[in-house]
Amino acid sequence: FLMIRRPPRSTPKPSSAASDVYKRQVHGDFMDSKGVVVVALGGNAILEDKEKGTFEEQYKHVENSAKQLFKIWEAGYTLVVTHGNGPQAGNLLIQQEEATTQVPAQTLHCVGGMTQGQIGYMFQQALQNEFKVNKRPCPIATIVTQVLVDENDPDFKNPSKPVGPFYTKEQALKLQNEKGYVVKEVKPTGDRNWRRVVASPEPKEIIEVEAIKSLIKAGVVTICCGGGGIPVIQTKDGLQGIDAVIDKDKASTCLLYTSPSPRDQRGSRMPSSA
Q1: E strands within the chain?
Q2: Residues 33, 76 contacting (CB under 8 angstroms)
Q3: Of the four listed, 127, 135, 156, 180, which is most buried by Cβ atoms within 10 Å?
Q4: Residue 201: what pLDDT?
Q5: Digit-coded pLDDT (tens) for 191-216
Q6: Cα-atom radius of gyration of the chain, to the nearest Å?
Q7: Handedness of CA 167, 182, 250, 40 (dihedral sign)
């Protein structure tokens, strides 16, 4: 899933392609970028259905993605990476539940923050290595991102977001009875086509959007909105986490509409897409 925030058509300043690339490599010059590309990578692309979920399995997929992401940056675009976390969040929830006799389980929104750190770390390191191999200096950073949602969103009453591993129907119904999971059939065919589902409210606002804009304008390859962002609500006392998982594509679209565009600093919110 790829989206581009293109600059408006204008007469480019005279400069060579080599000069533009040099400026971006050494100075991170946002104004010499062709536009902002937001690449949204699914959690299932990081951990495939038949895999166990080891760090090595996931990192291998992240390394492969990093090679392709580097090509986008090298083509002259400012790169922003978002990612899903369904398999990782579900697996981490299982770890939390199974260890309750030893340590207290953390909340779902806290698990979302954990997966942002986990997956962000892998992408940040893999991209750093890829840029180094290609001798292209560029700053890369991950930002833990909160996303505002409505606590009255209808999805809290009818959860729709699959998380964790796939189950047979019998396994899913057993988990529903024993652990209170909400489970649904998520694939029409196959013997393991059931998954646990959790609430997935609509994203309203990216809390760290100004920090993200600053990184983008500085030419930083930015990893953000992991897992769709940590869902939070606004209370009289301030922000508060709420148990849910936001769809990463919807959060990425929200991000795109608020991302800056080179040579257009007038606050236009209308993106192009590809």
Answers
A1: 2-5, 36-41, 78-83, 140-142, 146-148, 161-167, 183-185, 194-198, 205-206, 221-223, 230-235, 238-241
A2: yes
A3: 127
A4: 96
A5: 888 999 999 999 999 999 999 999 99
A6: 20
A7: negative
Whole-number Å distance between alpha carbons of 249 and 202: 11
Nearest one of 271, 247, 238, 231 to 113, comparing CA atoms = 231
The Cα 129–Cα 166 span in angstroms is: 33
Between CA 232 and CA 241, with CA 236 as vertex, the angle to 5 degrees is: 20
pLDDT tens sequence across 110-138: 999 999 999 999 999 999 999 999 999 99
Q: What is the pLDDT of residues 23-54, one digit of tens each?
A: 444 344 555 678 889 999 987 789 887 888 99
Structure tokens at 125: 């390191």
Amino acid at 112: G
Query: 194-198 and 183-185 as β-strands: parallel, antiparallel, unpaired?
Result: antiparallel
Which residue carries 């580097």 as its tokens?
A: 70
DSSP 219-230: T-EEE--GGG-E
What are the residues facing 238 on neighbouring strands?
Answer: 235
H helix and E strand count, the chain: 8, 12
In this predicted structure, what is the pLDDT of residue 3? Answer: 59
pTM for this predicted structure: 0.81
| 176-185 average pLDDT score | 92
Helix (H, G, I), strand (E, B) or coil at 264: strand
Contact of 88 with 119, CB cutoff 8 Å: yes
